[in-house]
User: Which sequence fits this backbone?
DNA sequence: ATCGTTGCAAACGTTTTGCATAAGG
DNA sequence: CCTTATGCAAAACGTTTGCAACGAT
C-alpha cells in the first residue's frame, strides 16, 4: 500500500535540469550531424512555451500562416516534432488515432486520466506505477524504454452535468 | 511488496463465462434492435477463432476475397468490429497509429509489453495495476471505464540478437 | 413493410513522400 | 562545396461516409 501517488491536485512542477532544452537540442544535432535551421529554432521556442499536450494540427493552427514571417510548412512541422522526440525533448503518445505531444525535458514523468466526454487529459504522477512497470519488465527480461498508462473514463465535471452540454462519448 | 503480478510465463487461460460469445452478442443485438446478419455471424466466428491481437487489415487479409462465399467488404468489417467492441466482445487499443483488437469476453483482463524491435505484444496480468488505477481515479473523483497500460522496450530475444536480423526500431 | 445492413465508390483526416530549390556547416 | 532541410504537391495510410440495393424481423 503506502503513498501510491503524490497529491495530483496541483499542476506538475518543472524539475531541475542541467541544460536548457535548446542546449540539449543543439548537442543532439551536433552529435548526429544535423542542422539547426531557423524553422527548428522557432518551433522549439513555440513548443517550449506550451505547458499542455498538443497535437500537430493544433500546433500548426497556432503558427504563422503561409506568407507570414516564421511560416513553417506542415511537413516540416511533422519532421521536426519527430526530431524533438528523438532528441528526448518531447514525449509522444497516441490518442483517438492521432499523435499527441508533451514536454519530456524538465518535466516530471507522469501519466494521464482521459475523459472520453470532454476529451480532457488530466495528469497524475505515481511512483508505484514505475516500480510496478520495472518489476513486470524484470520478470520478463524485458528492457523498458518507456510506458504509457492512460485511464479512460468520465471526469467529475462531466459526470455532474450529465445531460447538459454533453458531447459524444467516443471510447 | 506482495505478489504484484501472477506468473506471466504461461499463456493466459480462458475464464468461466455464463454465455458463449454468440449468445452474448445475440442478446446485445436484440436489446438494441440490431440485426444478426450472415456477415456478422461469420466475422464473430473468425474473430473468436483467434487468440491473438489483430488489426482490421490483418483480419481482412485472412478473410475470403471478393467473389468468394462469405466475402465481407472492408467497411462492413470496420462497422462490425466497432459493434463487437460495443457489445463487450472485443477490446480495442491503439498501437503505432492503428486500432488493435483482442478478445475481451471469456479472457482475463491484462496489459502488454510491446517490443519496438520485433513488434511483438506480450501479455501480462497484474492485480496491482487495477488497484492502483482505481486508487488514482478515486482521488480525482474520476469514473473509470477502462485503461491501457503498455510497457515499451526490447524483448529478451531481440536484445540478444542485437545486430543480426534487426528491424527498424520505431518507438 | 419496415428499417437496419450491405457493398461500392468516394471521401476523410492525419501523416508521409518525391523532388527541386534553399541554406547551414 | 557538400549535404541536410525546406516547401510544394501529391501520395499514402487507416478509417468512415453517402447512397442505392438488399434482407432480417
Assistant:
Amino acid at each position: 500500500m503506502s503513498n501510491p501517488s503524490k497529491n495530483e491536485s496541483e499542476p506538475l512542477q518543472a524539475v531541475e535540469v542541467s541544460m536548457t532544452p535548446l542546449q540539449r537540442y543543439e548537442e543532439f544535432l551536433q552529435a548526429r550531424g544535423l542542422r539547426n535551421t531557423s524553422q527548428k529554432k522557432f518551433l522549439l521556442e513555440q513548443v517550449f512555451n506550451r505547458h499542455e499536450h498538443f497535437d500537430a494540427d493544433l500546433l500548426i493552427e497556432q503558427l504563422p500562416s503561409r506568407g507570414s514571417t516564421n511560416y513553417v510548412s506542415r511537413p516540416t512541422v511533422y519532421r521536426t516534432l519527430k526530431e524533438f522526440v528523438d532528441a528526448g525533448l518531447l514525449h509522444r503518445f497516441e490518442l483517438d488515432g492521432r499523435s499527441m505531444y508533451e514536454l519530456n525535458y524538465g518535466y516530471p514523468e507522469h501519466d494521464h486520466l482521459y475523459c472520453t466526454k470532454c476529451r480532457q487529459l488530466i495528469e497524475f504522477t505515481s511512483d508505484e506505477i514505475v516500480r510496478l512497470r520495472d518489476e513486470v519488465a524484470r520478470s520478463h527480461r524485458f528492457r523498458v524504454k518507456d510506458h504509457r498508462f492512460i485511464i479512460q473514463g468520465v471526469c467529475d465535471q462531466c459526470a455532474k452535468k450529465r445531460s447538459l452540454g454533453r458531447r459524444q462519448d467516443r471510447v
Notes: Chain A has two domains: 15-107, 108-171. Strands of chain A lie at 54-55, 90-95, 98-103, 111-115, 121-124, 143-154.
